[in-house]
Each structure stands twice: as structure tokens, then as C-alpha cells.
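Hey,
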Amino acid sequence: MNASLANHDSILQKYASNQANFLGRFYSEKTSSYRSEYQRDRDRVIHCSSFRRLKHKTQVFIYHEGDHFRTRLTHSLEVSQISRSIARHMGLNEDLCEALSLAHDLGHTPFGHAGEDVLAECMENHGGFDHNIQSLRILLLLENIYENYLGLNLSLNCIDGLLKHNGPVENEQKLKILLPEIYNYSLNLKTYGSLEAQISSLSDDIAYNNHDIDDGLRANFFTINDLKQIPILKDLINETYNKNSDKNNYTLVRKLIDYMVTDLIDNSKKNIDFHRINNIHDVYDSNKSIIKFSDGVSNLIKDIKIFLHLNMYKHTHIQKWSNKSKEIIEKIFIYYVNNYEKISMKFNNNFSKERNISDYISGMTDKYAIDLFNSLK
């Protein structure tokens, strides 16, 4: 191992993901003299076309509604920043956290969750659709840049972490239908992922809850005073609010992110000690998540999600676009079912016609889907 890589591993905790517990890649490759295996994972994600398309995929607001609203790309970058900060403080592998965070939303359709819902309806009789599994389909099967194999050939550690983004696999039947190839990787579906995988997942929660608050305030869907109905937020707002400042929104979100990150680090360190986590095998053998918020912050996040559901995601403006996006995706799907020859040359695989159409649509940006829809009128 290169001396600089060895020195990097020496600063990690024994329960971190490092070169010593690297699980390898499905296709054997020569190691790099200058980059760790997880740096290579991260770099492959950043350079793939699916990652670039996140720039024009909806987080909550359609891409053209404002230059400062989040997209799937900026969201993924923000998750990455939060997860790296947590990993660094806890002596865990920042590069693996970053790779997982940047890759976790690659499978999202255009128009966010509304797009996913209608594509799942279109695919109801053809195996269904799930954006988390779609991210893995992209990374294992759909990205096509290497001469000798499909996919990005990410490390098994990275694939395992993405597979368990929300914990152990609960719906194995869905996985068997949507991604039977995963069973070639000999991963244990019943365990929790690495601590880095757990950090990436909860950094996702921290990022989207706080930044949806920021975007909702920016869009005037609700006010700072409306947020005071959430108990802990009320206290933070009272500490933050300055009637002579135009920076209250930024200050609140910044403080709230710091509050959640601090709680997650402190509580997770207690869990590591309590469960006597001494190496990565202890992590995999644990029957529960180790990286966790305290009960108080878990309840705060639940309250924020309820608030955002009622005041943002169900807002008439968002619902209007959600309904329109369903019309767009459904029309495109039906069109290609009836005119498959228009895109059949794009595929050289054994997947069904409907699965290929689903893969094609899910990879579209908002703009591409809108332009295509308009051209079909």
C-alpha cells in the first residue's frame, strides 16, 4: 500500500471502513498508487453522466422556478458535506461517506417523488419501480463507459452501503424482481451497513429537512412564525430572531443543522461505547443501527417532516406541478410502449420492453421530459 494511504488509514478508528476491510470489486482491478479504493468510488460517481443529470432533476421545485432552489445535484452535494464533517470528527472514512452520499439519489426520476409515484404506477404490472434500487441499477448495469463490463464496478463496500441506505433489506421480493443481479455479489441483506453508510443515510435526513425549510421560506410557503409551532424550533427561533436582520432564515437553518449534527455525533459515540463496537465486524453483527439521533431530535425531525408535508409538499403550487408531472411521465411511457422502435436501438440487454422504457424515463431530466412531452402533442 502507498505510504500516504497507509497513513490515512492509521488515523481512522478500528471500526471504520479502511483498506484492511475492503471487500473488493466484482470485476478485479489493479489498485491505484495514489487513491484509496473509496476515493476511486467517489470519482467514478462524480464523473458519470447520471450524476451530471441531477443538475436538472427536481428536489421540490422544478428546475426553472428559481436559481436558488435545491436540485437533486445540490442536495447530493449538501448531503456529502454533512456526512464528511461527521465522519471526520468520528474517525470514520470520509471518502466512503462522500461516495455513498453523492450516489444515493442517482435513481430519482424527473419531477422528484411525484415522478417516481407515476412511474411506479406505469410499471405496476411489470415489476414496479423504486428509486433506491434504481440507483443500484444505474451503478451496476446502466452506466456504460468501460470496455469489458457494464456499470461503474464500485467497491462491494459502497454497493453494500447503498443497498442498505435505509437499513437491512426488508422487501427482498422487490429486490429480486428489480435487481436480481445483486445476488451475484454475495452481500448479507439482513445486516445494517457500515457506520459510513449509516452516517450517509442520516445526513440525507439532516440535509433535506433543513434545506426544504430554507426553500419553503424562500418561496413564502410559510414563515418563521409558522415554524414556531414545532417546540424545539420555537426555542431556536427565539434565540436566533433579530428584527433588524435580513439573515434570520439563514441563521436558523445553520443553527438547526449544527444542532442535529452535534446531537448525532454525541449520541452515536455513546452508542459505540454502549454496544462495545471495537471493529467493523461488531458493526455488521449488531442487530440495530449504531449511528442514531437522540429520542428528542428524532421526534423533532418527525415534527419537521409533518410540518413540511402539510405546508410545503401539499401546497397547491407543488401539487399543481406534481399533477402535471404525472401527466407528462404517463404520456411518455404510453407513447414508448406503443412506439418502442423509436428507442429500441438504445438497448442491448435481456430486460423487458417496459423495463427498458422505465430505465430510459427515469434517467431523463425535468427539461428533457418536458420538451419531449411537448413534442408529442
